[in-house]
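USER: For my understanding, would you kindly supply a protein sequence with its C-alpha cells?

ASSISTANT:
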Amino acid sequence: MHETNEVDESHEAASRHDEDFSNLTEGDVVRTLNKHIKVLVAKDPHYVVFLDDDYGVEWATDLETLPADYGRIMSRRSRLEGLSGTVLPARQLPLFRRWLGDAVGRVFADGDGQNAQRILDRAEAYLIAHSRERVRFWYVSAATATTAVFAVLGVVMWLSRAQMRLWLEPNGFEILLGTASGSIGALISAISRKTADGDASSGARDHLFEGAARVLLGMAGAFLVAVAVKANLVVGFVNAAGAATLPLLIVLCVIAGASERLVPTLIAKLEQPPVAGADEP
C-alpha cells in the first residue's frame, strides 16, 4: 500500500463556495457538491463531512486555511476508501467509511492532521487485518475443495482395492493411495497457517490458485516419498513391516504432504554424489 499526493479536485473546488453547512441534516443535498447526505458525519458553519448514497466519503468546506498535510491526508483517505471496496463485505462498508469521514472531520475541526492520521492508522490496520483474513479464507477454501476431490478418489480406490491391486499390482496401488493421502497433509498445513500472504485487493483468483497448488504440491511430495520408500531409497524398514507397511506408508505420505521442507531435503539427499572410495575396501 503506497500513498499518493493526488487530491479530489471537486472537493478543492467546493472550498471556493460559501455555504452555511450547520443547518444540513441527513437527507439534504449539499449544493456545492450536488450530493445527497446519506449519513452525516460532522458539520460546522464552515464545513460538512458525510457519506453519500453509495457510502462514499464526501466533504465541502469554505475554510481558507488548511493544514500543511491536508493533501497527504486526503490522498491516504482516498486510497483506503478505494481498497475497502474490494476488501470489506458490503455490510461493513458504512462503518468503515464513517471512520474515514471522522478523519476528514478532524482535519477541519483541529486545524492540523495529527488526530486524523491516528484515525487513518487505525483504519489501515483494520483493513490490513481483514485483508489477511479474506486471503486466508480463499486459500483454505481452495485447499479444502481440492483435498475433498482427492480424498473421495482415495476412498474409491480403497473400496475397490482388490481390483486396483490386480490392475496396478500392490506397489502401484500403495503409491497412488499414498499420493492421495498427501492431500490431507497439505490441507493440515494450509489450515494451520495463522495468516496468509497476499493482498485481498488483487482478487480471489490468485489466492484460490495458490490454495489448490499447495495441495497438488503436497501430493507431488507424497508421491516422491512413496516411490522412494518402495524403491528402498529411504526408510526401507517400512517394506519389511508386513501388515503395517501400508499404514506406515500413508503416515509418511501425510507428513510429506504437510511438510514444505521434507521433499526438498529428500531430493537434495538423493542428488548427493557417492563419497569417493566409499565402496573401496
Summary: Residues 1-6, 12-16 have pLDDT under 50 and may be disordered. Strands lie at 29-30, 35-36, 39-44, 47-51, 57-61. Helices lie at 9-14, 70-87, 93-110, 114-159, 161-192, 204-230, 245-258, 262-271.
